[in-house]
Amino acid sequence: MPAPPSDPVPRLYRTPPDRFVAARDEAVAQARHSGDVRGAREIARLRRPTVAAWLVNLLAIERPELVGDLAQLADALRDAQRELRGPRLRELSAQRRSVVAALVAEVRRLAADVPGAPSAGKLPLAEVEATLNAALADPGVAEQVRSGRLLRPAHYAGFGEVPRPQLRLVTGEEEPPAPAPPDRRQDRGAMRAEQARRAARAELTRRRRALEKELTRARTDQERAETDLDAAQSAERAGTAALDAVETELAELERRRAVTEQELSRSRLARRAAERAAAVARRRTGEVEAAMEALTAEEGDADSGTGAAD
Q1: pLDDT tens for residues 40-55?
Q2: Alpha helices in 84-183 (DSSP H)
């Protein structure tokens, strides 16, 4: 039995999306051929990424150290936001823009080296940039980016710098300023934004549940199809073995037929030789019998002549 192939997942997610399905089917066939039925099923469950997600996966697979640097920058940004360190946050934000721009340029370079990749003008680099920014803001997105198995680009509308608090030096000669009254319009806007975010999350949850149900049905159908395929392959192997046995038997019969035909040919030659010998013997017998008859006749004539002379 051939040795099982090495992990095909990174190779699949390096493959341009328009060739992903064919490459996945080939990897499934190789796993089945090597006897790895479970691995074949796991590979068959892999889904094709969008072009933008493929570009991010390509970066994570080919340049994991750059994605690691991005994660470190994300941690620093979150620390600065939590601690409201304005100068540090501005510095890190500028660094963020520089790093993301460099990563997008690296993505463009990596894609140019992949055979069959879309041309540079058709690469969705804006979606790549949005996904990298989302990874800086959301640890969950960052983990998906690091995995190299991203299926869709990500967006994060809430990313941004935390505004610095307004501070004032208080001396003993003056009273501290009274707190500013709350901005009701800002509160209402924040409430509407929060309601919109909740509605969006609810819609995403609804869509996810629908897709999960559809995925469950699809996996059930796939399991059934895989079972039918295994049964068909077993039947095919049994049929092939039976055909091989019949062909072996036919070959033996052909060999025996050839031997019998040779023996029959020798028997026919022997018969013909015996027929010729018998004909010669019959002819000789006839000749001898004729000579005997002639001799008998001569003897009779001789006897008759002797009697007359007496």
Answers
A1: 999 999 999 999 999 9
A2: 86-112, 125-137, 139-147
